[in-house]
Amino acid sequence: MAQGFQKANIPAIPELVIMAQELGVKLIACQMAMDVIGLTKEDFVDGIEVGGAVTFLDFAKDANVSLSF
């Protein structure tokens, strides 16, 4: 995947995350998905929060725009 980003002249995912954070984007990683995949908070760049569905819903109810995938 990294090679595809490089060929398309697109910044790597960590760089895109930092750019988004600089624009005020709040990122919440799903704890359940992390558990299934075997990721920890240390696997992410700084500034990404970890939470479950309740954490996301609490934030999303007042958000102007939210995107999940």
Into which percentage range does the β-strand content fall?
Answer: 5-15%
Detail the poorly predicted runs: none
Number of domains: 1
Q: Using only CA atoms, what is the Rg?
A: 14 Å
Estimated structural class: mainly alpha
Q: Which oligomeric form is depicted? A: single chain
Largest sheet: 2 strands, parallel
What distance separates the N and C termini? 18 Å
Which strands sit side by side, in order, in the main sheet? Answer: 1-2
The SSE order reads: HHEHEH
Q: What does the average pLDDT come to? A: 86
Mass-distribution shape? globular
Number of helices: 4
Number of strands: 2
Short description:
The protein has one domain. Helix content is 45%, strand content 9%.
Could you walk me through the main structural features you see in this protein, from its secondary elements to its overall organization?
The structure is a single chain. The longest helix has 10 residues, at 13-22. The chain is mostly helical and 69 residues long. It has helices at residues 2-7, 13-22, 31-37, 53-60, and strands spanning 28-30, 49-51. The chain starts with a helix and ends in a 9-residue tail after the last helix. The chain has a two-stranded parallel sheet. The mean pLDDT is 86. Helices cover 45% and strands 9% of the residues. It has one domain.
